[in-house]
Amino acid sequence: MIKHKKEFSRRVKTYEQHAIIQKQIAFELTSLIENLKFNTVVDLGAGSGEIYKHLKTKPSLFIAIDLSEKMCEIHPKEPNIELFNIDFESSELDNILNRQKVDLIISSSSLQWCNDLDKFFEKISHSSSVFAFSIFTANTFKTIFSTTNLEPIIYKKELLIEKLNRYFNVQTLFTKEYKLNFYDKLELFRHIKLTGVSGGEKRLDFKQTKELIQNYPLDFLEFEALFCVATTKNLS
Ligand SMILES: C[S@@+](CC[C@H](N)C(=O)[O-])C[C@H]1O[C@@H](n2cnc3c(N)ncnc32)[C@H](O)[C@@H]1O
User: Fold this and answer.
1) pLDDT tens-digit profile of 112-138?
2) N or C end of the chain: smaller count of CB under 10 Å?
3) Which one has a higher pLDDT value, 201 or 145?
4) Which CATH number fits domain 3-232: 3.90.70.10, 3.40.50.150, 3.40.47.10, 3.40.50.300?
5) Residue with the nearest Cα to atom 10 of ligand 1?
6) Residue 236 has pLDDT above 50, yes or no
7) Rounded to an integer, what distance in angstroms lies between the CA atom of residue 204 and that of residue 207?
8) 49 touches ligand 1 (CB under 6 Å)
9) d(CA 69, CA 223)
10) What are the start-end ranges of the H helices in the chain?
């Protein structure tokens, strides 16, 4: 099983309570497209439905896709919503995208888990008129990485920008930094676990974790998200 699938399923209840930054990012992403009208929307890594909840004008068809069965269970259920418990990197997404005209493909805080971003962007670039997403960059938890000398496992913003320009006509592109404050360090590190943002990847042993908690110099966690609204090169 893909590690982060297990992690998101396990953390589903606590994700809902603790994913403050992800909820803020989903809100900011939907504000970027709020003046546009879409009939059919596909949400990749839809989770508990933050995107759907924030869309001011609900589309006639909203297709929510998520790898975690538990996340699908807590997504809003309405007559205009179709839910698919599938991997957005699988060929099942192709079938969905080929079935009807999709006006908007949207994704918030989920694509950092994409294993083959080139293949994925290539696929999306053939399929939709508008692609709007937010993605965590390698600057997320940057002081944790510099304190432990570990390399971030998610994409650097420079690489993301290079790939986006290869496949899309980029209309909006910016990064934004966030800080989440904590009263104590244990609570800070618990947050990482509770929101599943580490993807379930355990890279430190007990001694290293203890050292990190002792040596981490901040009382906040750092996040950086890249926001993008793009159209495909084929269509514009
Ligand atoms: C951080 S949550 C974001 C959820 C929601 N978009 C939001 O903004 O709150 C990431 C979601 O992506 C899903 N996910 C991760 N990799 C996926 C994949 N390859 N295919 C489908 N869903 C995936 C996870 O199960 C999880 O629900």
Assistant:
1) 989 999 999 999 998 767 999 999 999
2) N
3) 145
4) 3.40.50.150
5) 110
6) no
7) 8
8) no
9) 26
10) 3-10, 12-18, 20-32, 50-54, 69-74, 91-99, 117-125, 142-148, 157-167, 185-195, 206-215
The residue contributing the CA closest to ligand 1 atom 11 is 45
Lowest mean pLDDT among 46-55, 64-73, 142-151, 159-168: 142-151
Q: Is residue 136 within 6 Å of ligand 1 at its C-beta? A: no
Q: What is the pLDDT of residues 8-29, one digit of tens each?
A: 555 555 566 568 899 999 999 9
Tokens at residue 154, please?
């998610």
In the chain, count H helices and then E strands: 11, 7
Query: The pTM is what?
Result: 0.91
Atom number, ligand 1, closest to the C-alpha of residue 8: 25
Residue 133 beta carbon below 6 angstroms from any ligand 1 atom: no
Say how many Å lie between the CA of residue 45 and the centre of ligand 1. 3
**Residue 46 in contact with ligand 1 by CB distance below 6 A:** yes
Pocket flag, ligand 1, residue 108 (CB < 6 Å): yes
At 52-75, the pLDDT tens digits run 999 999 999 999 999 999 999 999
Residue 67 Cα to ligand 1 midpoint, Å, equals 7
